Amino acid sequence: MPYWLLKTEPQEYSYCDLERDGSTVWDGVSNPLALKHLRTMEIGDLVLIYHTGKERRVIGLAEVVTQPYPDPKLDDSKRVVIQIRAVRRLPQPVTLTQIKQDGRNFEGFDLLRLTRLSVVPVSESHWQRLLELTSGIN
Hints:
Radius of gyration: 14 Å
Number of helices: 5
Shape: globular
Low-confidence stretches: none
């Protein structure tokens, strides 16, 4: 199963907002590589929600609930969206500092390599390590 990390500005839309809403359309992605990643998502893929800005931490878990489809608010078939639903808040958020300090376990992780990318694939080994850092949820 593919795993992903989606970045969001918490003052614009936080994991708390996703919990309140239950699900949301994930839109606003314009970077070509991020859009490429969105296009490959499948129903059931798991997603970590990462708060950017001052927080810089992985905060919650979500699931993709629709196939990618063209953003209905735009007249551009290349701009796709997905819908995700909240699964659970992480017992303990994982900060960017923690990830950087655990460097050897996160070698090649696009969160560290491509810092402006808003849709980041997460390898199985990186996913498992992130879960370990949150107090071991699976």
